[in-house]
Amino acid sequence: MEPMEPGGEGYEFIDEIKGGVIPREFIPSVDKGIRDTLSNGIVAGYPVVDVRIRLVFGSYHDVDSSQLAFELAASQAFKEGMRQASPALLEPIMAVEVETPEEYMGDVMGDLNRRRGVVLGMDDDGIGGKKVRAEVPLAEMFGYSTDLRSATQGRATYSMEFKNILKLLPT
Fold first, then answer.
1. Can you say whether the dihedral through the CA atoms of 141, 43, 85, 7 is positive or negative?
2. From the Swiss-Prot or TrEMBL record, what is one GO molecular function term (predicted)?
3. Above 70 in pLDDT, residue 8?
């Protein structure tokens, strides 16, 4: 098991079994067992992303081996490997731009700060208002349009787009 370059959805399964120590018909079951476990992860139930799995060794039994047995064994091995790998939670960060009349700047800035936002700058919008640029965790942006309308009497607007993903620090 090894990390891949960050990108959010990566998973790669590489079969490096030599000499038939695991019969070919069981290899897809190993992949399936891992894929099924990826979706629930081991940290707070979040999916695992950006991981490469190399199948390098294994064994089978003529009587007891089955597709299901290999799926379950792969799932258990993946969970144990993840525990040993010290996985981290990732958080999507959004680039946010708010256009607001100047009299609401304090309310807008305070609300962005409460949402764990980092204000990057402010500019005049050319028509008597201000543009605020910030980076804010996506999880904090739910309900923002309603809160912004309430704080500015419906006079402010905002746009938001994906910026990057940050690793959350353990708490």
1. negative
2. translation elongation factor activity
3. no
